UniProtKB/TrEMBL annotation:
Lineage: Bacteria, Pseudomonadati, Myxococcota, Myxococcia, Myxococcales
Designated name of the protein: Glycosyltransferase RgtA/B/C/D-like domain-containing protein
This protein's record includes keyword Transmembrane: yes
Compositional bias (Pro residues): 11-34
Stretches for region Disordered: 1-34
Length: 489
């Protein structure tokens, strides 16, 4: 090859270095999702975690609202808590007597020589009117009354509270299952929740508003929240807080505090040894009791001060000052609680049977009560449980102390369908069944459940509440309630 051709050869190409990948620290973070998408994801995750609770709420609300019927669209005939809340918003601790919707179960206080006494005879300008019940339901209603005033619908509020109570009860059952205190699965817990909803007196109480039934239903919801935090004394501050809310809704629930005390001191099953061990290792139990008291103290202190202002006594909620009430004769003679009342309350709770008329054929009930063996037939299985786990004794003792006030009380609960005071301890009774070992598939259990649903369906349809009673009075029916006309002062 010639020199010339050798020189004309093109130069070799220069190697190009590969591109340098950016190192990991310098990589840009992914862009955050838009707020709308993040919120949607959060809602989906929440619904996925609590889908059973959501379905129970929706089913409970739909059924209770349907049976509430036209009542759902109007305020009840006894919206006492609405009037109490509105009075607070107006800056007064008593209730304006010029706006009272009726004279049913209001407390009237008169100052005589510096002493607070019940109003008697002609009303005077200085008389003060109050709701004669614990006031926590009025506290819950405050924001809604602030929007709607005296016209706030306590009936629909009661239906919503009832649906939330069912969710609270299911959450309690689920919590017991997760702790190993109950062997029930999800489907059985759902079934027990539906039994509370439609197979107990809860059904007829949750659909009508009115001060007495509203308090009972809210008491069920708060009881479930209390027990969930009290089991094992695991959350003493929250247990104390919900305990005070429950007590300031239904005073007999004060005695349910025994459940937390037992869970803190001797949860079982070896209670004797646990009590003996307290002598040398008492600090953990006392700490739990102290935290429980700390949780209950704020609301309890406010309620006690309010009672002293209204009635002159720490534990008086107003029934000693009922104005022109049929029970005043018994209260003046025997007091609010007395052994004299036991026989008639036991009859109302266990012996009252449906009234059958043959000509024409008609099925009726006594407005003083109806036996619990019909309104809660599962009761018979609690007497013969299959198992007696750790919670068995603590629940029974709590039922016993919660039942005593209603059995020695001056009033049977009239007017009512069934012994409504039993709702104070119905959650504990159903918990006893939940841990008692009876299968929900057992034929006898299924028959009892069916009977309970049928009887309480009858109560939800047949019991008129105060609206119906007032209509009877206007029509010249039996005298049982006073005409709802406002007082004149």
């Amino acid at each position: 090859m010639s020199r010339k051709s050798k020189r004309s050869r093109p130069p070799e190409p220069t190697a190009v270095p590969p591109p340098v990948e950016p190192s990991e620290p310098s990589a840009l973070p992914p862009a955050p999702p838009p707020p709308e998408r993040a919120a949607a994801v959060g809602v989906r995750l929440w619904l996925s975690a609590y889908k059973v609770e959501v379905v129970l709420f929706l089913v409970g609300f739909a059924v209770l609202a349907s049976f509430s019927s036209q009542r759902f669209l109007r305020q009840s005939a006894a919206p006492h808590f609405v009037y109490q809340a509105q009075s607070w918003l107006e800056g007064r601790l008593d209730v304006d007597p010029q706006v009272l919707p009726n004279l049913e179960d209001w407390a009237c206080v008169r100052e005589v020589k510096g002493k607070k006494v019940r109003c008697e005879g002609r009303l005077l300008p200085g008389d003060r009117w109050y709701v004669s019940f614990p006031s926590f339901p009025a506290v819950v209603m405050l924001p809604f009354v602030a929007l709607h005033g005296y016209q706030f619908n306590d009936t629909s509020f009661g239906v919503i509270t009832g649906a939330l109570a069912l969710v609270s009860f299911y959450a309690l059952l689920r919590s017991l299952s997760r702790r190993g205190e109950s062997l029930r699965g999800q489907n059985e817990n759902i079934a027990l929740t539906l039994i509370l909803a439609f197979g107990t007196l809860f059904f007829s109480c949750a659909i009508r508003g009115e001060v007495w039934f509203s308090a009972e239903v809210m008491g069920v919801a708060l009881t479930c929240l209390y027990v969930r935090n009290a089991v094992g004394a695991s959350r003493p501050v929250l247990a104390g807080l919900f305990f005070s809310m429950a007590t300031l809704t239904r005073t007999p629930l004060l005695f349910a505090g025994l459940f937390f005390v037992l869970e803190a001191l001797c949860p079982g099953p070896h209670r004797r040894e646990q009590l003996q061990a307290l002598a040398s290792n008492w600090k953990p139990a006392v700490r739990k009791l102290g935290l429980f008291t700390l949780g209950a103290a704020p609301l309890a202190s406010l309620a006690a001060a309010y009672n002293v202002y209204r009635f002159g006594r720490l534990g008086e909620f107003g029934h000693a000052f009922l104005y022109n009430n049929r029970v005043n004769v018994d209260i003046d003679r025997y007091g609010l609680f007395n052994l004299t009342y036991l026989a008639r309350n036991l009859e109302a709770a266990f012996l009252k049977l449906p009234q059958v008329s043959w000509n024409p054929l008609r099925l009726g009930y006594d407005p003083h009560g109806l036996t619990l063996l019909l309104t809660l037939p599962l009761l018979i299985f609690l007497v013969i449980p299959k198992t007696r786990p750790r919670l068995h004794l603590n629940l029974w003792l709590t039922v016993a102390v919660c039942a005593l006030p209603g059995l020695f009380y001056q009033n049977t609960g009239y007017m009512q369908f069934g012994f409504r005071f039993s709702l104070d301890y119905t959650p504990y009774l159903l918990l006893l069944f939940a841990v008692g070992g009876w299968s929900l598939r057992h034929r006898a259990v299924l028959a009892a459940v069916a009977l309970g649903v049928l009887v309480n369906f009858w109560g939800a349809v047949a019991f008129p509440g105060l609206h119906g009673a007032c209509s009877e009075l206007v029509a010249g029916g039996p005298v049982g309630l006073r005409s709802p006309s406002p007082p004149r002062t």
